[in-house]
Prior knowledge:
Blueprint: E1 3-6, E2 9-12, H1 14-30, H2 35-63, H3 80-90, H4 92-105, H5 112-123
Helix pairs in contact: 1-2, 1-5
Amino acid sequence: MLKIEVDGRPVEVAHGATVMDAADQHELLFSVRREGLYFAGLGFAGKAATGLGVMVAGAALDMIHFPRSLGPAAGAPLAEGLQFRLVAIWGPVPAIIAIISLAVLASYGITRAQHDKIAAALRR
């Protein structure tokens, strides 16, 4: 994902750019501008993803029987079996989620050439 920095903080660009491309395509197809709706959907999706991520993380910790008493203890020793289970969910689970995300993103169909055609049609 393309990132730039503003005031020393990273700012993600790709999400907003793809949403604007989709809003442009919507305007071309339906002759009405709805970028607010698209950005509202992007904001909702971000919040939903955060909530879902926290839920999945909590469920995964429950599945491996991670002791609740160790949550606030930084640097607490972990049993070897618990360490293995923790690493097993820490690596493959996010990798599987990332692969699913890539499969979903592969359906994004606005290429640079198609975007140029959309922008030219909207300028007319």
